[in-house]
């Protein structure tokens, strides 16, 4: 999971090595040609970030979800990070594990149910920081969106909560198996909150990356945060050399939680102006905006022309990986919805196409296979009748 090119030229994913050989005359550079460990094209192309793995098809943040994401062509898999009571970094979208595990079915943990306020939101449930890692290992993941992705619920109760180390081990193993680099994009969740309870995420994250020899810019590692201060600290205090991704939200008044906590009035909207982006470039390499910051939503839920965000970020020297493309109608812009069932698939390929055309450098996606297909279209490859292999009788 270490790559030697600072800006990736697209790595063709599993199952397409033969296709790469076919396409070499029109611009592909194979691993042998390039002296790389993976097959690459000679044109820039957006990276596929498997959002929480392939969470459209598997309970999120499980090794099964990451495994499917890689098989579907993801270049990078995304573990969101929280911590246990004994300071083990584990992979969950939030510390409250009530809706993504079977913890409520474990009477031995009933006494750990509690109410906490995290980043201004009061919630009741079970929280990772009240469990030891050994205790968390006894739980199993369940589908977060059972009403939307009912098909995933058949896999409820099968998979454990992975640690960051297990995800790194997995990515290294998959990189060897598939002869291509599988990156990781760990996201520090609620860093100000976890520091406030004596369980900061950053020291363990840095130690883990260094122990795995991943603290270098050539590593396929993208550390994300919706906060600013911990990214600055990772770069300047910890001197971490991996790619850093400043995540931003679309709301007009939304602010990073560390800004709220410190009284800094700067909003995400201000951070994503040309001047704000130049400031981000002083400590981060990537911007991870809400896709609605690239294609703002009209009152009817449709999108029109792209905002200048991608152009402005590139002008500041920052690459752009928006989140999150999901295929169900309820997550798509109005013009891409098909029918009226909010849980049915719409024309998600149209949304991918629009975002690729807007110049993004990567996309977080719950369905890496569909992003892969859209990227093939974007690159001008075809699996249709005009494909060279289709002519073989
Ligand atoms: O990290 C990109 C995207 O995952 C941010 O949103 O809430 O899914 O972690 P979230
Ligand atoms: Ca995330």
UniProtKB/TrEMBL annotation:
EC number: 3.1.4.46
GO terms, biological process: glycerol metabolic process; lipid metabolic process
InterPro entries named in the record: GP_PDE_dom, PLC-like_Pdiesterase_TIM-brl
Primary enzyme class: hydrolase
Annotated ranges, domain GP-PDE: 46-375
UniProt record similarity statement: Belongs to the glycerophosphoryl diester phosphodiesterase family.
The name this protein goes by in its record: glycerophosphodiester phosphodiesterase
Organism: Motilibacter peucedani
Native organism taxonomy: Bacteria, Bacillati, Actinomycetota, Actinomycetes, Motilibacterales
């Amino acid at each position: 999971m270490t790559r030697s090119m600072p800006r990736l030229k697209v790595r063709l994913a599993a199952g397409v090595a033969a296709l790469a050989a076919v396409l070499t005359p029109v611009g592909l550079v194979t691993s042998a040609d390039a002296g790389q460990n993976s097959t690459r094209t000679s044109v820039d192309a957006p990276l596929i970030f498997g959002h929480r793995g392939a969470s459209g098809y598997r309970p999120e943040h499980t090794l099964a979800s990451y495994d499917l994401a890689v098989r579907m062509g993801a270049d990078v898999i995304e573990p969101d990070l929280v911590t246990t009571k004994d300071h083990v970094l584990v992979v969950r979208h939030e510390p409250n594990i009530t809706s993504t595990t079977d913890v409520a079915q474990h009477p031995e943990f009933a006494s750990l149910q509690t109410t906490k306020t995290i980043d201004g939101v009061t919630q009741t449930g079970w929280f990772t920081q009240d469990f030891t890692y050994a205790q968390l290992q006894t739980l199993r993941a369940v589908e977060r969106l059972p009403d939307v992705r009912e098909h995933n619920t058949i896999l409820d109760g099968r998979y454990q909560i992975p640690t960051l180390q297990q995800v790194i081990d997995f990515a290294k193993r998959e990189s060897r198996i598939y002869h291509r680099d599988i990156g990781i994009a760990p996201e520090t969740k609620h860093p100000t909150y976890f520091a406030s309870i004596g369980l900061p995420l950053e020291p363990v994250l840095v130690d883990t990356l260094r122990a795995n020899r991943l603290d270098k810019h050539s590593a396929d590692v993208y550390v994300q945060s919706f906060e600013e201060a911990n990214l600055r600290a990772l770069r300047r205090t910890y001197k971490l050399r991996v790619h850093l991704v400043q995540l931003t939200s679309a709301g007009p008044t939304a602010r990073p939680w560390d800004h709220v906590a410190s009284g800094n009035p700067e909003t995400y909207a201000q951070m994503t102006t040309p001047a704000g982006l130049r400031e981000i470039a002083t400590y981060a390499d990537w911007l991870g905006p809400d896709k609605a910051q690239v294609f703002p939503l009209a009152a009817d839920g449709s999108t029109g022309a792209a905002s200048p965000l991608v152009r402005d970020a590139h002008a500041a020297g920052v690459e752009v990986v928006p989140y999150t493309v999901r295929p169900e109608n309820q997550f798509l812009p109005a013009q891409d919805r098909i029918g009226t069932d909010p849980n049915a698939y719409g024309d998600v390929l149209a949304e991918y196409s629009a975002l690729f055309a807007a110049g993004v450098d990567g996309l977080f996606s719950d369905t890496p296979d569909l992003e892969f297909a859209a990227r093939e279209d974007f690159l001008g490859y075809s699996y249709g009748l005009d494909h060279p292999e289709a002519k073989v009788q």
